[in-house]
Amino acid sequence: MFAETAVSEVAGAVKLMAEKREFEYFLVRYVGNVVREEFVNIGVVMMERGGDGGGFAGVHFTGDWRRARALDPNVDTEILDALGREVQQRLANVDQRAQVLHQMMDGYSNAVQLSPVGRCRAEDPEKELRVLAASLVDAPVLWSAEPDATARVSGRRWLRAQMSDAFRSAGVWELMSKDMPASPYTNEADDFTFDFGYVVQGGFKLFQAVSLVDVGQESRIFPLRVAKIRPKMTEIRKARPEFTAIVEDRYEEQDRAVRMVLAFMKDEEIRVARVREMGEIAQIARSELGA
To answer: pTM for this structure?
Structure first.
């Protein structure tokens, strides 16, 4: 009886091993400092080995950018998100799989790199991909997600990244309009865009990152653009838009340029919200959009 049981167990183990398939995987890395070779893993791509190349191919990109931002406070997470979507889309095409990763990495210079190939065996590739993602990409943050005193936490690009993260966390990212062109309300040569917006009952809301730490032409001209665009936008859309400028939590309130921008925004009835309010703003959007 014992011998029969042992033989049965061995046969079962052999069968189990035979059912496992071989896979290769690459980690996608964001390199915040190329010279110092500092990086964080932001994604993993797993593909089945052998055959005609038509087997399993899966990708996971992180949705939590705290580690990347701790490495580089000015990281453009929207570009990295777009990269993840593009990789996923192109891997669905069997004919493109062999070249897709290397072709796409070339387009991102040295800021995005691939790890050496890794290999694994698995019965359930979807489950294995989740395990790889959990252990290699979405590992818990082991340091404070708050940037240190020397990190750059200002500027339009940084503000927009915080806005993006807040809308994603609230689950309304896919429901938001992004980079809405002003040209329908001005002229076809106008390349200005509003960062985010969404339609609400009886109107619509627009949100723009406006730096009050780096007060340049973009910050100065924003309220003037609103003054020009609002009447035409109201006429075309048959509703009065609401504009909100998202600014840094800290800025020099007595600075002459800052005071001028704030005064113009007040004149144009543009709400000014500090970036720390984005969580609340995103939750309001969630409620109004029924998400």
So the answer is: 0.56
State residue 104 phi and psi, 5-degree precision: -75, -35
Confidence of residue 140 (pLDDT cuts 50, 70, 90): low
Least confident of 77-86, 120-129, 136-145, 278-287: 136-145
Q: How far apart are CA 109 and CA 111, in angstroms?
A: 6
Q: How far apart are CA 6 and CA 136, in angstroms?
A: 37
Rounded to whole angstroms, the Cα distance separating 112 from 84 reads 11
- Mean pLDDT lowest among 120-124, 195-199, 207-211: 120-124
pLDDT computed for residue 225 by the predictor: 92
Structural domains of the chain ordered from first start:
18-137 (no CATH), 156-289 (3.40.1350)
CB atoms closer than 10 angstroms to residue 143: 9
Q: Widest CA span of the chain, in angstroms? A: 92
Structure-token match 């055959």, residue found: 51
CA distance readout (Å), 271 to 124, 182, 226, 253, 282: 51, 19, 12, 16, 15
